[in-house]
Amino acid sequence: MGLCCQCGTQIEPNPANMCVACLRAQVDISEGIPKQAVLHFCRQCERYLQPPSCWLKAALESRELLAVCLKKVKGINKEVRLVDAGFIWTEPHSKRLKVKMTIQKEVMNGAVLQQVFIVEFVVHNQMCEDCHRVEAKDYWRACVQIRQK
Questions:
Q1: DSSP 3-state of 9
Q2: Of 34, 59, 80, 140, which residue is most buried, by most CB within 10 angstroms?
Q3: What would you give as a GO molecular function for this chain, any one (predicted)?
Q4: Within 10 Å of residue 99's Cβ, how many Cβ atoms?
Q5: 7-47, pLDDT tens digit by residue?
Q6: Which of 18, 24, 16 is nearest to 111 (CA)?
Q7: How confident is the model at residue 139 (pLDDT cuts 50, 70, 90)?
Q8: pTM of the model
Q9: Comparing 51 with 140, which gets the higher pLDDT?
Q10: Which is nearest to 9 in space by CA: 19, 23, 24?
Q11: CA 136 from centroid of its chain's CA atoms
Q12: Nearest-CA neighbor of 91 among 113, 118, 64, 61?
C-alpha cells in the first residue's frame, strides 16, 4: 500500500501515485470537446443533415441519429477514446437531444482515466435542397460574373 501524493490517503500503487479523486480533480479529459452542438433537420421530409451535404432519414434515439450526432462532436481522436454513447430521454418537442458519452484517456505516466459527460444537441430547422426545389416550383440557380474593361 502507498499514499496519495496529494491528499495522503492509502491507495494501491499506480503510475500517477494519486487516488482517483485527486486525479480527476487535477485532469479534465473532456477539455476541448464541445458540450453543445447544432443539428439541422428538414421538417418536410424529416431528415437530418449529415455533413458535408448528405441528408439522412433517422428516427429519434436511433443508431443512425446517434452516428450523426457523434460525427458532429469534435475532439475525439486517438488520444481521447470513445468508450460508450447513448441518448438521454428528452421531450420530443423540446428541439434538444442529449447524448451521454463515456471517454477514456491516458494521463500522467500511463494512468487511464475514464469520464462521463453530456453533450446537448440543439435541433435547428433547415429545408433540404430537394424539398426547396419542390416548394419553389420555378426555381433557378445561377452564378453570374460581370467583367468590365
A1: coil
A2: 80
A3: ribosomal large subunit binding
A4: 21
A5: 888 888 877 778 878 887 877 888 888 999 999 999 999 99
A6: 16
A7: low
A8: 0.77
A9: 51
A10: 19
A11: 34
A12: 61
Contacts 24+ apart (CB under 8 A), 43-52: 43/125, 43/127, 44/127, 44/128, 44/131, 44/134, 44/135, 45/128, 45/130, 45/131, 47/128, 49/126, 49/128
Grid coordinates in use for 70? 457523434
Question: Would you say 125 and 94 are in contact if contact means Cβ atoms under 8 Å apart?
Answer: no
C-alpha cell at 3: 499514499
Half-sphere exposure of 78 (CA within 13 A, CB side): 0
The residue to which cell 496519495 is assigned: 4
